[in-house]
Amino acid sequence: METVAVDRQCLFEEELSLTGITEYGFSWDDIRSGDKAIPLEGARFDINFEGLAKGQNINGKIIGTDYLNIRADGRFLLTIHGRITTDDGVNIAFYEDGILTPSEDDPGKAGLRLNMRLNTADPRYSWVNKLQVWCVGTADTENRKVKVRAYSE
């Protein structure tokens, strides 16, 4: 079997702050503390965020919402919709899905693995529509901060 070389590049880095949490019958504080078991039907939260994207070709403000579902077995499933408004005023929509894995050593920290799709009709950034983007990052739930690196080929 032939090996295909992949030239990965960091498309941009994100630094985000969590700005709000909507709960649906189960407390975010209970998730963080581990005081209560996750209900059999799971737990749902809308987590709003904003921050900055910084990269060679994409720079701007990010705003969005993670429609987080936490299964009864403790698996965190991420479904994220948002927008990057570039420094030159172009809106790029994005959709991400992935998982968050809480640290076994530090309950306030977690790892992120995401798949991202970008979309805009602006010809200056139409090249993003063709990209397959994957992201890795960390979440600090105590300080409500997230750092992510987005990669593409």
Write a structural description.
- The protein has 153 residues and is mostly beta strands.
- It has a single domain (9-152), classed as Beta Barrel (Porin).
- The chain has one helix at residues 28-33; strands at 9-23, 43-54, 60-70, 76-86, 91-102, 109-119, 133-140, 145-152.
- The chain has an 8-stranded antiparallel β-barrel with strand order 1-2-3-4-5-6-7-8.
- The two termini are 21 Å apart.
Give me the secondary-structure topology.
Layout: E1 9-23, H1 28-33, E2 43-54, E3 60-70, E4 76-86, E5 91-102, E6 109-119, E7 133-140, E8 145-152
Antiparallel strand pairs: 1-2, 1-8, 2-3, 3-4, 4-5, 5-6, 6-7, 7-8
List keywords for this structure.
153 residues; mainly beta; Porin; eight-stranded antiparallel beta barrel; 1 helix; 4% helix; 58% strand
Give the strand order, joined by hyphens, for the main sheet: 1-2-3-4-5-6-7-8
- Estimate the helix proportion, in percent: under 10%
Please name the CATH topology: Porin
- What is the string of helix and strand elements? EHEEEEEEE
- Would you tell me the overall average pLDDT? 92
What is the CATH class name? Mainly Beta
| Total helical elements | 1
- The CATH architecture can be named as Beta Barrel
Number of self-contained structural domains? 1
Low-confidence stretches: none
Terminal residue distance: 21 Å
Task: Classify the secondary structure makeup into a structural class.
Answer: mainly beta
Outline of the structure:
The protein is mainly beta and 153 residues long. It has one domain (9-152): Beta Barrel (Porin).
